[in-house]
Design brief:
With about 140 residues, the chain is mostly beta strands. Helix content is about 5%, strand content about 40%. It has 2 domains: about 15-60, no CATH class; about 60-135, OB fold (Dihydrolipoamide Acetyltransferase, E2P), CATH 2.40.50.
Length: about 140
Amino acid sequence: MTEKSFELVSETEDDTTAPFWEAAGRRELVVQRCEACGEHQFHPRPFCLACGADEPGWVQVTGTATVYALTTVHLAVDAALAPPYLVGLVELDEGPRLIANIVNGTAAIGDRVRVTWREREGRPPLPVFEPLEDPL
């Protein structure tokens, strides 16, 4: 059996995801929005999941969301994340859901959160979410 080696590709080297990471570098949260049907989507794809149109555009979103699901991670999987830490599936106000760390406090399902950014050495910042002090 032959060993395979894999080269880690930078987030910005993928044409489909590059606009997301470029916006993250400016601390802007963007998702795709189909110009044909108006649906928002995340993860980036070269087509719209709702109607199949080619090359959905990109729009900045509010960065506010509702916690849809939540778990506490007790295993060390990354040096930047000391367990225990929260990982949530958050539903953006624009509709798409994404998985992210919940930081700067605790949260429960149904709580309102907003995007903030975790800095990473030599890479674009990572969107994470924190509880809203004054829920909408």
